[in-house]
Amino acid sequence: AEAQLRQSQKMEAVGQLTGGIAHDFNNLLQGITGNLEIVERRVAQGRTEELDRFVTAAATAANRAASLTHRLLAFSRRQPLDPKPVEVNRLIGSIEDLLRRTIGERIALDLHLDADLWPTRCDPNQLESAILNLAINARDAMEGGGRLTIETGNVTRENSAFVCIRVGDTGTGMDADTIARAFEPFFTTKPIGRGTGLGLSMIYGFAKQSEGTATIESAPGEGTSVRLYLPRHDGPMDEAGEAPAAAPVPLS
Ligand code: ADP
């Protein structure tokens, strides 16, 4: 019975996914065909001046449609996790330039990286895209500019050791209803073609699958902090290219 329930929940999720795609894609297509029809009519009437506006609008909708399909494809064929030991500070350092370019000049970037940070174990590519996604959400919440803070630290919760990554902004913040729904797939408050509502749900899934978790703290008008908790890795570092901080655990 439990397996059946899970199966029907899955089918419901697939139904929601398909409905969401169809709806957003249709809106974008209307933005393309509607503008192209105007272009056709004006060309037929010999009114070829002032066509730029409609062509640009059609191209914008086409770009958003392409980006929507790209993100949905990435979601549907989510790669299996490939967990390995990760030095989070170093990973953040490696995307610092990309982060600055992503948030633009009106948003300041503050890094508070704990020099004694434990290594963690997770899929580094997924962690990188999680942090980038959080930075994009922060940027979208700070249209007038602001401050993006990325902070790392060691945390022990309920006898388990975690590396905590906080991504904080000084943006619009979220009300209680938005916080409650933010991790749901397809929940978005952004206009069509801008948000898929998949970012935070993917981040939450990544954290859970990595045997950690994610939390949101937010207040309207004050800003938002999303925290990722990823498990401490103990044992030798492989592949990360760094000597183990402690002696390798002896094989018993
Ligand atoms: P999307 O960004 O595509 O809407 P997400 O799952 O990343 O999807 O976010 C869901 C919703 O949560 C957003 O539409 C927005 O309302 C809210 N949200 C996420 N991050 C922030 C943030 N940093 N500040 C304010 N609201 C946010």
UniProtKB/TrEMBL annotation:
<protein>
    <recommendedName>
        <fullName>histidine kinase</fullName>
    </recommendedName>
</protein>
<feature type="domain" description="Histidine kinase">
    <location>
        <begin position="20"/>
        <end position="234"/>
    </location>
</feature>
